[in-house]
Amino acid sequence: MGTFRCPDCGTPSLEICRALRIPPDGWSDDLSLQAIACAACGMKGVAAYEETRHGRGESFHHRGLRLSEADHAALLDRLGRCTCRSWRAPGPCEAHDAYNRVQGHAWLGLQMFQGIGASFRMELISSLKR
Questions:
Q1: Which of 16-25, 51-60, 91-100 has the lowest mean pLDDT?
Q2: Phi/psi of residue 69, each to 5°?
Q3: What pLDDT score does 124 carry?
Q4: CA-based, 20 to 30 A from 42: which of 6, 21, 72, 89?
Q5: Which of 63, 47, 67, 52 is nearest to 115 (CA)?
Q6: % residues pLDDT > 90 (the chain)
Q7: Mean pLDDT, to the nearest integer, of 91-110?
Q8: What is the DSSP letter of 112?
Q9: Cβ neighbours around 89 below 10 Å, total
Q10: Environment class of residue 83 by beta-carbon count within 10 Å: exposed (0-12), middle (13-18) or buried (19+)?
Q11: CA-to-CA distance for 46 and 117, rounded, in angstroms?
């Protein structure tokens, strides 16, 4: 986990509250859906992390999207309902059934959400090794 710069207030106070690992899709080896919140200004959102190790090296995309309070609460609740023993072979589980959706070969990620405004890049400020 780590701390990120909040796109609303600019402070290094944006954190991942809860995350759900998603099995690899046709493009990415490592996928994660994350509920995010800023401790400083209260901004709430969702983030999608996608990493690939195909080809000449590693590349990743980590984007966030602002959510309403109600949508964020629903996301936290659903992520908390994951009962899977392994993210590599999920289900049946309400969280993975809802968020492990692909179109073609690609995971839908943030496209599954009605966000507020445009998506933003998750800017890592510090990383904590646990």
A1: 51-60
A2: -55, -45
A3: 93
A4: 21
A5: 67
A6: 58
A7: 88
A8: G
A9: 9
A10: exposed
A11: 13
What mean pLDDT comes out for the span 32-40?
96
For residue 99, count CB atoms less than 10 angstroms from its CB and return exposed for 0-12, middle for 13-18, buried for 19 or more.
buried
Q: Is 29 helix (H, G, I), strand (E, B) or coil?
A: coil
Q: What's the rounded Cα separation, in Å, for the pair 11 and 34?
A: 19
Q: Angle at CA 87, nearest 5°, toward 82 and 90?
A: 65
Model pTM above 0.90: no
pLDDT recorded at residue 130: 42
The pLDDT assigned to 28 comes to 81
CB 37, CB 17: distance < 8 Å: yes
Write out the E strands in the chain.
2-5, 14-22, 30-38, 44-52, 59-66, 102-103, 106-107, 116-121, 123-127
